[in-house]
Amino acid sequence: MLFGLILGLAGAVCVILEQSIGDLGSIIGMIATLGALVGMSAAMLYEKRFGVAHHPVSANLVQYPVGLGAILPLASMLETMVVDWTFEFTAALAYLVIGNSLISITLLLAMIRRGKTAAVSVLLFLVPPLAALIAWLVIDETLTILAGAGMVIAAVGVAIVVNPTRKQA
Q1: 120-159 pLDDT, tens digit each
Q2: Which of 26, 34, 100, 159 has minimal Cβ neighbours within 10 Å of its Cβ?
Q3: Does some domain include residue 168?
Q4: Position with higher pLDDT, 104 vs 5
Q5: Per the domain annotation, does 167 fall within a domain?
């Protein structure tokens, strides 16, 4: 299983590196992305080991206000706090709030409670490869050999963790 986790992380790193070579802003973004992957995986392992039983909806009701309180001071210092409420922005925001946040986090918490945490956390390694694939399909972004190799490596790593082969006796 550890081998699959390492492969999944390596594949995600390949895809992230492909987008970040030579650009300082992208390098900072890459470091933040890797930090997010490690942090989310560690948080899931912590939640599985030490978390108390709670309903996913109540967890979301606590998680999002705490997150807002943590990020709002930084956002108010670095951003204009002006929003241009276009249809495209509103549709994207609705998708991110409903689909990407409420539904996905609720399902993630339920999966952690009912399943193997490593198998759940390794799915996060598919986020950078799938984002690169969607960007290639939707906005015609370049898909390099390094990104393609990273996608395959991440997928193999995830497959190893999610569907481990039984050891022969």
Answers
A1: 767 777 777 877 788 788 887 777 788 788 888 888 888 8
A2: 100
A3: no
A4: 104
A5: no
